[in-house]
Amino acid sequence: MITIEQIKTALTENVTNINIEAIPLDGRLRDYGIDSLDYFSIINELQSLTGVEVPDEDIDQLISIDAIYTYFQERSK
Amino acid sequence: MKIRAIASHIPSNAIDNLEQGAKFGESADFIENKIGALRLSRLEPNEDTSDIAVKAVNALIAQSGLSKDSIEALVVVTQNGDGSNLPHTSARVHAKLDLGKNVAVFDISLGCSGYVYGLQILKGFMQVSGMRNAVLVTADPYSKIIDMDDRVTSLLFGDAATATWLSDEGQWQLSPALMRSDGSGASAIAVDNGKLKMNGRQVFNFAAMTIPPHINELLNQESLVETDIDLYCLHQGSAAILDTISKRFPDVKDRFVLDMKQQGNTISSSIPLVLEKAIRQDQVKRILICGFGVGLSWASMILTNGEI
Predict the structure, then answer these.
(1) ipTM > 0.85?
(2) Which of B53, B97, B105, B193 is the most exposed place for a label (fewest CB within 10 A)?
(3) Model's pTM, two decimal places?
(4) Distance in angstroms (rounded) separating the CA atoms of residues B68 and B61
């Protein structure tokens, strides 16, 4: 099972120059400067952590920390 | 067989990658720090693959003292050769350099892993043929196949050529290469209807997941630890992928070379371009090179200065 803290850690480790704590859980990550290559790194790390594979077509669903949490929670069951 | 010298040719013609990025709404920070290239070099008008290959070989001859008469083999790594790829581009290069008929020439069809494969192939070829001097050329101008309206590929690739002199009297010894393939991922980077298509995420994941353990496997094979390597000269895919891979080696992260700002990702030329500078540094005694991409194909090798 994934936790919000693990998602924030993945964000912190893979994104520089952005204060992750300032991003609300439901805030659109793109609006806070998370770009497409950041997404690759973050999702790659969360895939390794959870064993859940994220197909390309699902990437657009992962718009916020909350959305990432829900996505991985549902598929980790 | 050892590497004796490396030279290169980067066309002065180029496109401004900040302007290209702005077309797609990408920030200057993204272009500089994630893509890693402010400028993408381009063939001059009316210039073809063999032309930049010849310029790289001529630079090698001028800089190293290599004599044309001593060249016994000339190999070109490319997947975007002159015309329709028939005849092989190395034959065009052979003619333009006016080399003798006793020279073996052939092409190797590989992308970003091509330089490492090329070194291994040419080293073995020279040994079984009793050759003393040969030239490995890389020249794979992706500008021929890039759709400038494609956000994924148009911000990344630049044109360049390199020439490496392999000789029995060289200074840099080559370890046996570690070579791997996964054809099930072949469609991740492929040409469709004459234009390059790339699944950026698939390629990124492949490199991020595959290359760190691959590097560790090579270090184990050579009974070395990561701190024994002075420089890690990996394929310059993008700043982001190099950052992701190097993070897996925190103790030596600063030994991973990033140098693609002025030309972009130049496919099989990217490793020899950084190597050309690396082997000139007196304090550098051992270098790990690693190429990865089209195929999917990846390969790595350790170069050791003969003095140690």
Answers:
(1) no
(2) B193
(3) 0.91
(4) 8
